[in-house]
Amino acid sequence: MKVKSNNIFFLGLVAVVALIIIYSISGEELSEQYEREIATFRQEKNEMFKTSDQSPLDRNQKKAFDSLDYYPINIAYKVTADFEKVPIPEVIQIQTSSNQKRNFKKLGKARFYLEGKAHSILVLKSTDKLAKDVLFVPFGDETSGFDTYGAGRYLDAELKDDKIILDFNLAYNPYCAYNPEYECPLPPKENLLDVSIMAGEKNFKSPN
User: Fold this and answer.
1) 75 compared with 159, residue with greater pLDDT
2) Which ranges in the chain belong to alpha helices (H)?
3) For 53-80, how does the pLDDT look when each residue is reduced to its tens digit (9 = 90+)?
4) I need a surface site. Which of 47, 76, 118, 125 has the fewest CB within 10 A?
5) What is the CB neighbour count within 10 angstroms for residue 114?
6) Secondary structure of 58-91 in the HEC alphabet?
7) Cα–Cα distance for residue pair 69/66, rounded to 1 Å
8) Whole-model pTM above 0.70?
9) CB 168: neighbour CB atoms within 10 A?
């Protein structure tokens, strides 16, 4: 069986839309406008999954597909983290779902507080030219294997000065969560968080 490479950021569409959501809202505009934009983004993603050639769903899944499953939108899970950049980005190998290894650049660590605890998480960048401008944050948490995909989820982010926004309402599943033909990077051990992140996309239940 031919293994397909996971589209980390839906060929740029998810990353671009997500970053617009992250940075186009501030101050009093948070809340209702934020929730509307996240909801619109989710509707557009559902449409892409059902109709696009770039969808990870196969033909039969598309026919029966209605919607992905999400946690309720909760602005408390939009986190502004401190970013500690490594002096010289190093290339590290990340295990994949097909027991292979893929190279990523380690850019630094994001440090933040969530649910009353301090956390840190590696921020990576793909060596793939198509994804070279996307900050890639694969992670697992205490919902992994229960409400959410057991192999973890992904975030895309953009650095602003010495801060980085981690909006877990935009956390999404790797393509191998929908289709075993895809090969997906797994979160490194540094990104397995001891907190339940009840935000973003839940586990996928195939409509077949």
Assistant:
1) 75
2) 13-23, 32-51, 59-64
3) 999 999 999 999 999 999 999 999 999 9
4) 118
5) 19
6) CHHHHHHCCCCCECCCCHHHEEEEEEEEEEEEEE
7) 10
8) yes
9) 22
